[in-house]
Design goal:
The chain is an alpha+beta fold. The protein has 2 domains: about 90 residues, no CATH class; about 50 residues, no CATH class. Helix content is about 25%, strand content about 10%. It is built from 5 helices and 3 strands. Strand 2 and strand 3 form a beta hairpin. The N and C termini lie far apart (about 75 Å).
Length: about 180
């Protein structure tokens, strides 16, 4: 860029500016994708989400990463594809935002500027009794004890097996946790 404003240098560049203003500039802009609703829907896919969620990843092994994607050219069908680990990471890194850029979290009434306005409107948190743990609070509020046996009502249920989290692929970082009651 030319530092035109510094030290009153406008006179040095005036002839160049005059030549540029004489030239008939034509800027080509593509027509919009559709109406405002379609544009907001399109941008919404990218402003509030991560690059790829865990439930789309089917398998990770030494040969690469298999994941599902939506093929918009083929009637939005879900298809499985496999990329090498390096290519998958390259594409994933394209979604990392530059320094000081942030994803849009809240805007309008939910923006951080409106916290003082919204605070009086938020419902009050229920008061908890001192020394009350989570299980006691659930029983007090709902009247349901999840550890009580539903058949005999006197016995206590024990954890037999914990299911893995559904959002993480089961073959990546951990084995299935199993707890047995004795």
């Amino acid at each position: 860029m030319l530092p035109v404003k510094q030290d009153n240098q406008l006179t040095h560049y005036q002839s160049l500016l005059d030549e540029l203003w004489k030239k008939p500039w034509v800027v080509y802009c593509e027509p919009p994708l559709g109406n405002a609703r379609q544009i907001v829907k399109y941008l919404g896919l990218y402003t509030h989400r991560v690059a790829i969620s865990n439930h789309r990843i089917e398998n990770i092994d030494g040969s690469g990463v298999s994941f599902f994607y939506k093929d918009y050219k083929d009637n939005s069908k879900k298809k499985l594809t496999k990329l090498s680990g390096v290519e998958f990471l390259r594409r994933f890194c394209l979604h990392i935002l530059p320094y000081r850029f942030v994803k849009i979290r809240y805007y309008g009434l939910l923006s951080s500027k409106q916290k003082d306005v919204l605070k009086p409107l938020q419902p009050k948190k229920p008061e908890t009794k001192a020394g009350e743990n989570t299980q006691q609070r659930i029983v007090r509020l709902t009247g349901f004890n999840r550890f009580e046996c539903p058949f005999c009502i006197a016995g206590v249920m024990h954890t037999v097996e914990l299911l893995p989290r559904i959002r993480s692929p089961d073959n990546v970082l951990y084995n299935k946790p199993v707890r047995l009651a004795i």
